[in-house]
Here is the input.
Amino acid sequence: MSRRSRGPTAGALAALVVAGTVACTATPTGVELQKIEEVTFAPSLGIDLADFTQLQTGVYYRDDELGPVDATPATWGTTPTISFTGWLVDGTVFAEGSIRFFMGNFEIPLGLEEGLLNQRVGGTRTIIVPPERGLGGVDQVHEEGVIVVPGGSVLVYEVVVDTVEG
Here is the structure.
C-alpha cells in the first residue's frame, strides 16, 4: 500500500487538526457516527480488519512496513514528523502531506496519535480512527465552503514516520 505523496495539499493541516455506510451512534446534534466494524471500506484501501490490531480506544492499526529495530519510536512527549494520506472509507482522499507536531498536544486527532504510538522512524502504518477519536460529529469544511470530511466519519490514514525528536 504505497499511496502516499510527499507534497502537501491545500487544507491538509486544517483537515488533520479539526478530523459510506452504516452508522449507529448519534451525537447530541443528531449527527450519526460511523462504526468501524460496520462500514464498507473501498476495495482500493485494502482494509481487512482481521489484519489489524485494535486498541482499547477503538483505534485500529496495521504495520505495513516496520522501521529498523534501532530506529526511534514516536512516543508521548516526542516530536515526530510524519508523511501521511487520509481517506474516507469510500476511498476519497481528504488530506495528504507532511506535518511536524508534539505528541500529546492534540495538534492532530487523538486517535491518529494513539495509532502512531511506538511506530518507528522509517515505518509505514495504516491507522483507522473512529469518529469519537477523530473529528467527531462536526463537518470539516474547506475554505471554499466545501465539506471535506462529513461529521461522524471513520478516517483511514497511511502514515510514515520520517523523524522523531526528543
About this structure: The helical segments are 12-18, 110-116. Strands lie at 23-26, 32-34, 53-54, 60-65, 79-88, 93-100, 124-129, 140-141, 147-149, 155-165. The CA atoms of residues 126 and 158 lie 4 Å apart.
